[in-house]
Specification:
Elements (H helix, E strand, L loop, with lengths): L13 H9 L6 H18 L3 H4 L7 E4 L6 H11 L4 E5 L15 H21 L1 H16 L31 H15 L7 E6 L16 H15 L4 E6 H16 L2 H15 L1 E5 L14 H17 L2 E4 L2 E4 L4 E6 L11 H6 L2 E4 L5 H9 L5 H10 L4 E4 L1 H17 L6 H17 L7 E4 L1 H13 L1 H7 L1
Parallel strand pairs: 1-8, 1-9, 2-5, 5-8, 10-11
Antiparallel strand pairs: 3-4, 6-7
Helix pairs in contact: 1-2, 5-10, 6-7, 6-9, 13-15, 15-16, 15-17
The structure holds adenosine-5'-triphosphate and magnesium ion.
């Protein structure tokens, strides 16, 4: 990742967060601001004295807006920036306890699992130099079995593939042995042995997992515990032949695992999950029952809402890493709410999402900017894709305007699917070009309004046709 030296989400002030989101999401200023403030409030809360800190609960948000205007995209971008545990889940994935599907508590387990990975990686990175040195030492031991630091046992010459014959050095390294070893280390670092085969003992995996399913008793944890049981009984340490290159990867994993203290990882991960965790619940409108019927899918949707409620309010969820308190986790929900309204959510849940922010419908000028400005703008993507074939595609501003107008027109005459329309239109616009790109290598193709009209007019003017293919 290239953002190692850029600042991370939790250190950003609201205006910085908004600026970061601006790189990818056009407009929707209100939503960006609300979210930026809610995110910043977590950092502020963390700075409070402990007695007040516990009193401040997170200001959960619901983002409301028509389809395809950037709700999920905002979540995706926050996820990329976040140095706090963050997950995005779809409300529709969950079912009431007792039905087939995922129970809502699994979102907390997933969040914690992300935090554990995150902390483990950070801690291992801090030890990178130590790990690297240890890995090298182990590789050198393999390459120079007779030059080990150990007292000289006539080692069973198991490593039949290491044919290097070096004079036997009894005891610790003698001067000569030492210098041979250092010479080999240089060569090793330069990759001179990468393809050489050695025999290693792949250690049995998964220490520290053990049998931890007691107490949580949910299906996923049980399955995971079973897997780790399998690795205790099944996968005995095996000797196998691998290249030095591969051995280096294996040893690095092992040494990294060894270099971090599992208990510290879990403590830190738990703290981060509880204090700074963020859960983004997408498609929340899909679990809002429209009033009326008291049977059928509405019942089970309400059931999911009831299950989610305690988690949002603050409850204790047991995971294989211990009990997680959800009181201070920030929840951001999003939904189009064209059929159901936020008021169709059960009142208790509405109360737990005090902040509402609406996203605007996208207009022609927004489409223009979406096509052109974001760092991952669609026109840039096509430009890059076709560049791989040696074709230089350019879009004139007038052509982009024309595309935006067409997108808006189709959105109003058939269904309004927001910015998603741009993708289908661009695909049709460039279909011909994509098909024959390899034959056009070396050329510059400029997309003009005339080209746009020529490719799209037939489809757009025929409503029935556009309904199917645009
Ligand atoms: N404001 C915007 N700026 C830039 N790109 C956008 C914007 N809105 C939407 N897009 C693009 O359109 C696509 C769909 O947007 P997104 O997934 O955010 O829709 P949504 O609001 O979550 O809709 P839904 O309610 O249907 O889930 C995304 O790939 C995104 O790149
Ligand atoms: Mg979405």
């Amino acid at each position: 990742m290239d953002r190692q030296n850029t600042i991370k989400l939790d250190d950003m002030v609201p205006s910085q967060i908004v600026k970061e989101l601006d790189k990818y999401i056009i407009g929707q200023d209100k939503a960006k601001r609300t979210i930026a403030v809610a995110l910043r409030n977590r950092t502020r809360r963390k700075r409070l004295p402990e007695n007040i800190r516990d009193e401040v609960s997170p200001k959960n948000i619901i983002m409301i807006g028509p389809t395809g205007v950037g709700k999920t995209e905002i979540a995706r971008r926050i996820a990329k920036l976040s140095n706090a545990p963050f997950i995005k889940v779809e409300a529709t994935k969950y079912t009431e306890v007792g039905y087939v599907g995922r129970d809502v508590e699994s979102m907390i387990r997933d969040l914690m699992s992300i935090a554990v990975q995150m902390v483990k990686r950070e801690m291992a990175e801090a030890q990178e130099d130590v790990v690297k040195r240890r890995v090298e030492d182990r590789l050198l031991d393999l390459l120079l079995p007779d030059l080990k630091e150990m007292p000289p046992e006539p080692a069973p010459n198991a490593s039949g593939t290491t044919e290097l014959q070096v004079a036997n050095a009894p005891g610790a390294f003698s001067g000569a042995a030492e210098s041979t070893r250092e010479k080999f280390r240089k060569m090793l670092q330069a990759g001179a042995f990468d393809d050489k085969e050695v025999e290693i003992t792949a250690a049995a995996r998964s220490q520290g997992i053990g049998i931890e399913m007691m107490g949580s008793g949910n299906l996923e944890d049980i399955q995971e515990a079973m897997n780790s049981l399998g690795s205790i009984f099944g996968n005995k340490a095996k000797r196998r032949k691998v290249t030095i290159k591969r051995a280096r990867d294996i040893f690095t994993d092992e040494e990294m695992e060894k270099s971090v203290d599992q208990d510290r990882v879990i403590d830190e991960a738990k703290e981060r999950t509880e204090q700074m965790g963020i859960i983004f619940i997408d498609e929340i409108d899909k679990i809002a029952g429209t009033n009326g019927s008291a049977s059928g899918p509405d019942v089970s949707r309400q059931g999911v809402q009831r299950d989610i409620l305690p988690i949002v309010e603050g409850t204790k969820v047991s995971t294989k890493w211990g009990i997680i308190d959800t009181t201070h986790i920030l929840f951001i929900a999003a939904g189009a709410f064209h059929v159901a309204k936020p008021s169709d959510l059960i009142p208790e849940l509405q109360g737990r999402f005090p902040l509402r922010t609406e996203l605007d419908d996208l207009k022609t000028k927004d489409f223009f900017r979406i096509l052109k400005e974001p760092e991952n703008a669609i026109t840039k993507q096509y430009h890059e894709l076709l560049k791989t074939e040696g074709v230089d595609v350019r879009f004139t501003d007038e052509a982009i305007t024309r595309i935006s107008e067409i997108a808006w027109e189709v959105n109003t005459t058939s269904e309004n699917i927001g910015a998603r329309r741009l993708y289908t239109i661009m695909e049709i616009l460039l279909e011909e070009l994509s098909y024959s790109a390899s034959e056009l290598s070396g050329q510059t193709i400029t997309i003009t309004p005339a080209y746009v009209d020529q490719r799209l007019n037939d489809v757009v003017s025929n409503q029935d046709l556009s309904r199917y293919i645009l």
